[in-house]
Specification:
about 75% helix; globular
């Protein structure tokens, strides 16, 4: 029986996702999905399957230069977070924030604003926002699940509407026969999922309500705080794993702010350096051509050196203390690295089974029917969600769907329906990636918030589903109206009305 380039190619990720949602245990679920993919590829020949899983899959993914760069960036960032904690910078910032951020709503808005400002790269966003805002949200009684959602919702959804980001560079790279960056910018007003996610965060924070499993997580967090019970959330910094982690009493807010600022500045410079900025390319072109993986490694490595020199010079930590903190930071990132490794290996199994070929063929056949062309954006949005959810990669989804959409319209950038359809592809890919338990961005949001991974996935699913539903309706409208202002206005109104109705229903349930 043939399993490649058929619907069977989607079975491994579906098994992993379903098991993860049922068991709330991600490691074994991912491995079962990987094993299924290997067996299908090998026609159930065990020796061939083992070679494919570990040599072609796991070792192949871990020897990929892009993946190695991301892992190095993770390790360096974990070490920097540990250094900031040991230097007392995080503690000092927490005390400062308690004085200046007075309310729970203010802490959530501060998290959203910081997430929006760090629009360069989603990995960078997740871990930086988490390390900076976690002391603040903890002080105001915000659950780790809610923090993880705010981080995740300001990572990929913000990067996908920022022309200066690693995501814009990825999208433009998938567009042949047209000006990719111009197309990306024109598609931003039609990216309903990203824009409505931002609207949703602002509205639920301003209206002070949560619903679904997130509401339960917030209530449980309040009860735990009152009982002074220790949370069993995963640790990002490793500090929670030690009975009495050594923390300097001389730390100030500057000992957190300067490392973070140096990290941002150095990473931006690192990315434009890889894009040829210092060889004559302009800033936008350099970002479009940048290698995010290498750029983040360059930037974070320089920032780590700056941080160590600064801490030693200001005598908050000795040189030996700094060196001891580095392996502790590495250890804190091991859970995220392990999940990422399994997720990448599962993607390799799915790719080898030809999932992209199968899905691409289905989309091309359906879209070839002229009667459904006005509904094409909605169709592409749904397929993008499913593909990104099943594979855990939005960039892979771009690579599959964007060339199909461009070919359908002959690369005609003046065709408004093509712009809407490409935007729907990006929105669907981000939506599916946003809620997939095997997505690397979702994994890093969990790590950044110090939240158990499957708790983050299950608590944000109702929120993702709400925005996705309104976005789907918006794409149906946009397909017929073909005007970004009208479509976006209607979508925002629909989103706000939907949340108002959900709040009233939630209040009625609570009162009963």
């Amino acid at each position: 029986m043939e399993f490649t380039n058929t619907i069977w190619s989607l079975l491994p990720p579906l098994i992993a996702i379903i098991l993860a949602l049922i068991t709330k245990e991600v490691y074994s679920s991912l491995f079962v999905g990987i094993l299924t993919g290997g067996l299908l590829f090998a026609g159930f020949n065990v020796s061939v399957a083992m070679k494919h899983i570990f040599v072609d899959g796991m070792i192949g993914q871990l020897s990929d230069s892009w993946n190695v760069g991301i892992l190095v960036f993770l390790v360096i960032l974990g070490s920097m977070v540990m250094l900031m904690n040991r230097a007392g910078g995080s503690s000092a910032f927490g005390k400062w924030a308690v004085k200046h951020v007075k309310t729970k709503r203010g802490a959530q808005f501060a998290t959203i604003i910081l997430g929006v400002l760090i629009f360069i790269d989603d990995y960078f966003n997740c871990l930086t926002v988490g390390s900076v805002m976690r002391p603040v949200t903890d002080k105001h009684g915000i659950s780790r699940e809610k923090l993880a959602y705010l981080i995740d919702a300001t990572a990929a959804p913000i990067c996908i509407i920022s022309p200066i980001s690693s995501w814009a560079a990825a999208v433009t790279g998938f567009v042949d026969g047209a000006n990719g960056l111009s197309l990306f910018v024109r598609a931003i007003p039609y990216n309903f999922y990203a824009l409505l996610t931002l609207v949703m965060m602002i509205v639920i924070t301003n209206m002070k309500f949560d619903y679904g499993s997130m509401s339960l997580a917030e209530l449980n967090h309040m009860v735990e705080n009152r009982k002074n019970k220790k949370k069993d959330a995963a640790s990002l910094t490793g500090a929670e794993d030690q009975p009495h982690p050594p923390i300097s009493q001389n730390g100030r807010v500057i000992h957190l702010v300067l490392p973070i600022v140096s990290l941002i500045v150095c990473c931006v410079i690192g990315m434009i350096y890889t894009g040829g900025f210092f060889s004559g390319a302009d800033f936008v072109t350099a970002f479009s051509n940048s290698d995010a993986s290498v750029g983040l490694v360059y930037g974070s490595a320089v920032a780590l050196v700056i941080t160590i020199v600064f801490f030693v010079a200001t005598r908050v930590l000795s040189f030996n203390d700094c060196m001891n903190a580095i392996p502790e930071g590495f250890k804190s990132m091991v859970p995220a690295i392990l999940v990422l490794t399994f997720a990448w290996t599962l993607k390799a199994m799915t790719d080898s089974l030809g999932a992209s070929t199968y899905v691409g063929g289905v989309v091309a056949n359906v879209a070839g029917n002229g009667a459904v062309m006005s509904l094409l954006p909605a169709l592409v949005f749904l397929v993008g969600i499913f593909l990104a959810f099943a594979t855990g990669t939005s960039w892979g989804t771009f690579g599959i769907l964007i060339p199909i959409v461009v070919n359908l319209f002959g690369g005609d950038i003046n065709n408004e329906l093509m712009i809407i359809s490409i935007s729907a592809c990006m929105a669907g890919a981000v939506c599916g990636d946003h809620c997939s338990p095997i997505s690397d961005t979702t994994i890093m949001a969990s790590a950044g918030a110090g939240c158990e991974h499957m708790r983050h996935v299950t608590t944000q699913l109702p929120y993702v589903f709400t925005v996705a539903t309104v976005s789907l309706v918006s794409y149906v409208i946009a397909g017929f109206v073909k005007n970004w202002f009208i479509s976006l206005f209607v979508s925002i109104v629909l989103m706000i009305l939907t949340l108002v109705v959900i709040k009233k229903i939630s209040q009625k349930k609570t009162s009963n």
